[in-house]
Amino acid sequence: MSRPGGSTGTGGTGGGSWAEPHGSWATAERTVLRRARFRIGVLVGVLITLLVALVSWVAYMVLVHAQNEQIDRELRYTLSYGTPTAPPVCAWLFALDDGRVTAGPVPAPPGFPLRADLDAAVASRMTTERAVSRNGTRYVIRTQARGDGAVQAVFDTRYQLSDRRHLLIALLVTSSGSVLAAIVAGTAVSRRAVAPLAEALATQRRFVTDASHELRTPITVAYTRVQVLIRRGAASGLPADHRKGLEQLAATVRRLGEIVDDLLLSARLVGSAAEPVREPVDLVGVVEAAVAAKADRLAEQTVTLEFQRPAGPLFVDGVASALRRAVDELLTNAGNHSPAGGHIVLALGRAQRGRWIELTVTDNGDGFDPAAAERLFDRFYRGPGGRERRSGLGLGLALMREVVTGHRGTIEAVGRPGQGATFTLRLPESTDTAAAAGAAAGAGAAAGAGAAAGAGPRREA
């Protein structure tokens, strides 16, 4: 996988404290589906709620408009034809003639009539209207000239206000019920809307898994047959250019097998809903096995490998096979970017802060392109340039991050173009001391001998 970054990390920060990593790809996929359902449900619920609110607002405004028209008709009729002695219900009429105010038999509310408005109507011959809130209600007062004097009508809107309050209460109760209905409807709609997406993702994972399984056997057979042809060609004196072509074919088939393995692992990691069984794993043993497996290939590239081993076992809680895959990818990545005669250094030990186990892989190869740093661990990303031996679809570092974050760890990369790179993998140290002690005891004398031998740096060809 080509390196695209200058300095970047996943699930942690460089130096100092390290944050808890984000979830794995499988968790991320389930999170995406949950968020999609939630957003669709919220959207449907909001739309239904807004629709109910709009209908309620229209109903309320229609009532208010009808009441205002009724009040206006009552005031106009009272001022034009009414007399102080026989005003309409909920209204009072006052007449000003020759400086004297005449009121009806029904006592007027305190503060009425408004003498200033009557005098102003006589003087200006203009109609005035105002609303006054007092005595626990709201009054609409209209004053206009009539004859040589003026009349003033006062309308009590307490019954209209009561009708509005009752309507508002009914609308609030209805809206509350509509919100609950909107939540239920939104949930149902969101589940039906997201179901095709979930099914498509599951179908995609099944296809990748099935195709990968079906391809592994013929690829293995093809690789074996190519190896046989290479040996027969060497034994029968096949020309060098023909043998080179067979070796290139074998390398291509091997790369194809690695691609299929990456796709299969990717499908398994994303599609696994169950949490894998975790147990204390000696990371020292995992790294040693990876170093031993990669030694021959690195030797073919004339790349030296140095493993700075700790003095004893270091245990993390996890799955040994998955951790081995992560370490393999670190070594493969470093080897792919190391020049002939290059040097790779692995350092394993406890971090200076917190209960973390830290594995650092440093090479003196190509380094990173800082402009592409953010895409370092993206799936299927292939950085520009590179030598022919770089293979794969850009899944290696992405799958390694999947393994690391699945173990609640972090991965960080630092580098510069032409100055090599350093990948730092951090995993929380196992807290199951009893199980770790049992695993260490089960290693027997070999673990003790390895710990003694690892007191200093060791070079692997």
Q: In a few lines, what is going on in this structure?
A:
The chain is an alpha+beta fold. It has eight helices and 14 strands.
For the biggest sheet, the summary is: 7 strands, mixed
N-to-C series of helices and strands: EHEEHEEEHHEHEEHEEHEEHE
The number of helices is: 8
Per the principal axes of the C-alpha atoms, what is the gross shape? Answer: rod-shaped
How far is it from the N-terminal to the C-terminal residue, by CA? 23 Å
Major sheet: arrangement of strands: 1-12-13-11-10-8-14
Provide the descriptors you would attach to this structure in a database record.
single chain; 461 residues; 8 helices; rod-shaped; disordered C terminus
